[in-house]
Amino acid sequence: MSHLALAVIPHFKIVAAYAIFLGSYIVFAIGKFPGMKIDRPGAAIIGAVLMVAFGIVRPGEALHFIDFKTIVLLFSMMLIVAYLRLAGFFDWVTQLVLTRLKPRNLLPMVIFTCGLLSAFFVNDIICLVMVPFVLSAARQMRVKPLAYLLAVATASNIGSVATITGNPQNMLIGSYSGISYRSFLSHLGPVALVGLLLDWLVLHMVFTRSGSREPELEVPVSVGTVDHGQLVKPGIVVACVIAGFMAGVPPAMMAALGAAVMLMTRSRDPEQVYRQVDWGVLVFFVGLFVIVGGAEENSMAGLLLNAAKSWNLQNAGLFTVVVAGISNLVSNVPAVMLLKSAVPGFVNAHTGWLILAMASTLAGNLTITGSVANIIVVERAKPDEVITFRDYFAVGLPITVLTLLFGYLWLAGIK
Q1: CA dist list (Å): 308 to 159, 304, 349, 370, 413
Q2: 181 neighbors 246 (Cβ within 8 angstroms)
Q3: How many domains, the chain?
Q4: What is the pLDDT of residues 192-233, one digit of tens each?
Q5: N or C: which end of the chain has fewer CB within 10 A?
């Protein structure tokens, strides 16, 4: 082979790596490939296969790029949450709150229940569970459900910022940064708490001005019955898992142990649990690891580091805006994967990781398509309530701006 050919091959691989990377991220941004039924997980797998097919990533290296700690943590939390859902844990929590509820307190109840549950469990599941109960409560209290549905979406995003297990992007950041579960919670827990208060303030003001009345029905809300006997084992396991997180046990290991114990049962068919797992998200992560790994091996990491220095991304305010913008452009998980190479080069990488978690999560409240949780709420609410882009944006914009502003001020002040 000629020297010219040998010189061209590396350049071809670099061009191919960037083309595959950009093509994949375009699909992540628009949601589907135009004219075809290729969604984000499909684009991630196609991109990963092309990285190997073009020789950009060797088959053995592909496994090296996959962060199995994140995959194990995400899969284990899905199993735990699936078992809790099938056992009626979330129904029980909702029943506990709703049956003791004063009608005028429905809005803050929805906000803080969703926020608290989303802090420790994957927020998408909380939305799946809470929407039917909110619709039922609003129907029985004879009020329009729009404000309460928006509360489910926005509060689940805000609450999930508090911990490593609140959402998938936090799991990624927890793995790459090495920040402990307890440290993550101590830094971002206050952001979640104040964010939920701001969420309540904005929703209350917007819907009070629009003339929406508060619930007036004084009878307890009917939410069905729950078999409390099935909650004992899940309750003990979840308490042990959270205690392990707080004690400093690696989150992936602790979650895997909890999932394994949950699966040791004589009463529940494991197939029921497996059907609750979002396999598409796991596929998306595996493909994304390979795509980003291949691009980084071909100088993308160096380009990002140079860009970070040129644009002064170490400035907390600017980094917050950039993360929020990219998260709304390509979705939060791809945004975190894109920016993770730049953060270790920051003078204060610890604060950089926390800002990345905070901004990528809170930015999800800007529009309906800003996070999967929002889309779940909109789709689950049909046909009882149609949530338009304008309905969501009217509250999403002020909530996003206010929570991002507080998150920036808080993290910039404690660095």
Answers
A1: 29, 6, 13, 24, 21
A2: yes
A3: 1
A4: 999 999 999 999 998 877 656 566 555 455 555 666 677 888
A5: N
